[in-house]
Amino acid sequence: MDAAIRELLDKKAIEEVVWRYSRTLDWLDDEGQASCYWPDADIDYGFFKGKAAEFLPIVMEIERGSDRRWHMLSGLIIKLHSATSASSECYGLFAGASRQDDGTLAGNLYGGRYLDEWEKRGGGDGPEWRISKRLYLVDWQHDLKNQPDFAPNPDFPLPTAQIAESGHPLYRKL
User: Fold this and answer.
1) Cys-Cys link to 147, which of 1, 86, 97, 100 (CB 3.0-4.6 A)?
2) Alpha helices by DSSP H, 35-113
3) 143: exposed, middle or buried (Cβ count in 10 Å: 0-12, 13-18, 19+)
4) Is residue 19 part of a domain?
5) Centroid of chain to Cα 26
6) What is the per-residue pLDDT across 24-53, written as a single tens digit (0 to 9) for each?
């Protein structure tokens, strides 16, 4: 029973990092995003191949270049290899929109997969799981034209939030 409980706890810890990855990109939380990777992790996004420590400033600059960004990962499958190593795969959707020359918001919707390797290493607060290697594969892309602005639609006034920099007042460290 103890081994089964340990496996569930390890998988849950990896799952939390995956969800944190999406959330910290969308809220522009540099520190939270860095906590998803080991600094020496090998990263391959096609446009970037190198170490996580070098990738993080680049990806956060890209995210800051969007007026709106949204990441969702699902279908996560995790295979534990040992007490300190694992592999995972999950599907991801990413939408981003930026202000166009005519004043409208437009962007792209991407569908892809994250092929990750994980390591559990000791830290100041004890051992933790982080990504040690990532390959991102794009499967498809769709143009998003004429996206809604940040003012609520008067016919269906849902709240909106423009997240242009770190430290948005609605962001909560969880």
Assistant:
1) 97
2) 52-64
3) exposed
4) yes
5) 8
6) 999 999 999 999 999 999 999 999 999 999
What CATH number does the domain containing 113 carry? 3.10.450.50
Q: Has residue 103 been placed in a domain?
A: yes
The reply to whether 160 falls in a domain is no
| Residue given tokens 């794009």 in the structure block | 138
Which residues are paired to 96 by β-bridges? 69, 108
* Helix, coil or strand: residue 168: coil
Residue written as token pair 């959330």: 23
Q: Give the chain's domain count.
A: 1
The CA–CA distances, whole Å, from 131 to 21, 150, 152, 174 equal: 10, 34, 38, 19
Contact 89, 77 (CB under 8 A): yes
Q: Are strands 68-80 and 85-99 parallel, antiparallel or unpaired?
A: antiparallel
End-to-end CA distance of the chain: 30
Q: Is the pTM of this model over 0.85?
A: yes
